[in-house]
Design a protein that fits this description.
The protein is about 25% helix and about 15% strand. The protein is of the alpha+beta class. Helix 2 (about 155-180) packs antiparallel against helix 3 (about 185-200) and helix 4 (about 270-285) runs antiparallel to helix 5 (about 295-310). About 40% of the residues are buried.
Length: about 450
């Protein structure tokens, strides 16, 4: 008998004392049940009940044995409070131990005609194929936290590496955009994004970020943002935002763009106006970026421009600082802020990514806790660049390159006809060089 059982004993069914002990044993059982029902800290207690079927088994009678929670292929972490609303890159998420697809509620009401389709298994990354892994790649939980208040001024080394990450993100986005055609699934686009990222030695940043299951976001028609690629074939006349972020050599590069499935002739005039307005308000806001400018000018200009044209700007999601951390200070609001915010400084790096809606700007979260659609089922559009504040203006680190296509909304923009790469002297000179090269 183990003398270290601390009150545990062996019950022998052949013992002559067993019958006389039964009333006492059941009294002990009742006491243990009461203890188990009482509030306790840590994981739930595991108690073996006393009875004939457990004869010969060791049971706890003077102590309650506690077992650690079951963790499946991940390290134990502190339990976080459950979240009442939907998730997303711009919201505090609920931490889960695995990417388990939840069973859809049959009575869930979708705002528009789009429905979730089957998802392929999450794609894997061989660490030997890339330069570095972000800290959330294994368990989905970001460890490194950027400042919530102070905006980081990037060093020259930071900027060099962010330019490389930005160019890689642009190359991947161009590859993805060329696949946006009738009959192509967004899952096929995700597969291409995954492969293209790894070919460049980069990790696809969305993959397993707070348990996001794919390597990019594909937001079709009424989806505002964070659409999960799946098996739905794209249809002629769809509009789709493809959002790409790559993690290259320790730094993130983030950009997104709209694509029209089937080309401009497949899209109705209302859809064309939505995309043109979204692009123009975005470019106008980027042209305001320069040192010593208050960050509130970005949202003020976006809201004023789109409201005058009958559109709304989403308030629930925002742009963000970026660098070695995916999302950090500052928050970039795409709507009017009636108070001073921080002031831009050379070396600040952040995204501007307005989400503009034909109708109501409030998001309707799907049951996957990621996909955010408009509440009225009307369409939404978005563009995004990673931007560097320079001494003389702004540079788009994810700007278009020699092989990038020029879209009709760029050619017809009120603010910058052709490719916009920024307002700094270097960015303007580069845009002129690209003028005859970009097809």
């Amino acid at each position: 008998e183990d003398s270290n059982c601390r009150g545990a004993d062996i019950i022998d069914p052949s013992s002559s004392q067993l019958q006389g002990m039964m009333p006492f044993a059941f009294a002990i059982l009742a006491l243990l049940a009461a203890l188990a029902a009482a509030p306790t800290s840590g994981a739930a207690a595991f108690i073996v009940p006393i009875g004939p079927s457990n004869a010969g088994r060791r049971v706890a009678v003077g102590d309650v044995t506690r077992l650690p929670p079951l963790m499946m292929n991940k390290r134990a972490s502190k339990r976080r409070p459950a979240k009442k609303s939907g998730g997303g890159f711009g919201k505090k998420p609920r931490v889960t131990s695995m990417n388990i697809k939840k069973r859809a509620k049959p009575d869930f009401v979708y705002a528009g005609s789009l429905r979730p389709h089957e998802q392929s298994p999450t794609r894997l990354v061989n660490p030997d194929d890339i330069l570095s892994l972000p800290d959330y790649a294994i368990d989905g939980v970001p460890k490194r936290k950027g400042s919530s208040a102070e905006i980081e001024v990037k060093t020259e080394e930071d900027i060099v590496k962010m330019r490389r990450a930005g160019r890689a993100a642009r190359e991947v986005l161009d590859i993805a955009g060329r696949l946006a055609a009738p009959g192509v699934t967004t899952d096929a686009i995700d597969a291409a994004v995954h492969a293209a990222s790894i070919e460049r030695g980069a990790y696809p940043s969305p993959l397993n970020y707070r348990n996001f299951p794919k390597s990019c976001c594909t937001s079709v028609n009424e989806v505002i943002c964070h659409g999960i690629p799946d098996s739905r074939p794209l249809q002629e006349g769809d509009i789709v935002n493809i959002d790409i972020t790559v993690y290259l050599d320790g730094y993130h590069g983030d950009c997104s763009e709209m694509f029209v499935v089937g080309g401009r002739e497949s899209l109705d005039e209302a859809g064309q106006r939505l995309i043109q307005t979204t692009y123009d308000c975005w470019v106008q806001s980027m042209q305001l970026v320069r040192p010593e400018t208050n960050y509130n000018v970005i949202g003020n200009s976006i809201q004023e421009y789109v409201h005058e044209r009958g559109y709304s700007t989403v308030r629930s999601f925002c742009g963000h600082g970026i660098g070695q951390v995916f999302h950090t200070a500052p928050n970039i609001f795409h709507y009017k802020i009636n108070q001073p915010l921080d002031v831009m400084k050379a070396g600040h790096v952040f995204t501007i990514e307005p989400m503009i809606c034909e109708g109501d700007n409030h998001p309707h979260m799907w049951q996957d806790d990621w996909t955010a659609t408009t509440v009225d089922g009307k369409r939404s559009a978005q563009f995004e660049h990673t931007l560097l504040v320079t001494d003389d203006g702004v540079e788009a680190l994810t700007g278009k390159i020699e092989s990038s296509p020029v879209q009709w909304w760029e050619e017809e923009s009120q603010f910058s006809k052709g490719v916009f790469l920024g307002t700094s002297a270097d960015a303007v000179a580069r845009a002129k060089e690209l003028g005859n090269l970009v097809k």
